[in-house]
Hints:
Elements: H1 3-11, H2 23-30, H3 44-47, E1 52-55, E2 58-61, E3 66-69, E4 72-74, H4 78-88, E5 95-96, H5 97-104, H6 110-125, E6 133-136, E7 140-143
Antiparallel strand pairs: 1-2, 2-3, 3-4, 5-7, 6-7
Helix pairs in contact: 4-6
Amino acid sequence: MSMRERVLSQLSGSAPVLSCSDLTELRELLSSPTGTAPVDPTVLPLTEARGLVEWGELVVDRAGHRVTWRGEVLPVTPAERELLTLLIGPPLVVWSYERLCAAALGGADTAALQSAVKRLRRRLRGLPGGPQVHTVRGIGYRLDPPPRLNDH
């Protein structure tokens, strides 16, 4: 099995994979003949509507516009729900301020992001064993992996 095939099998279903033979091919692929901005492949799949996203007992239902913790609905704003979806969605990564602003807040500035994160933290604080938003200074935000079901 080639390296490309191994990578594709590892990433299958988690995100689109862009494969180019060289830098020239990548530049051609990213440049648009219609003059529109190239698509950021790391943001696109997470901004598309999809089903349920889970973090332990926290479930975000994007299609149903609701968030539940242990079956109980949590009152969150659309911006908070989108932030939570991105932060808990696979894979768990450090999200840069810029990517979160673009993907969750429609390009709003970092001050709007900080306000939304502050409100989201306040809502999550009351969930025993629930996710906590951590700041990675100078980079962005992340969540810890969800607890395993046999841990509580």
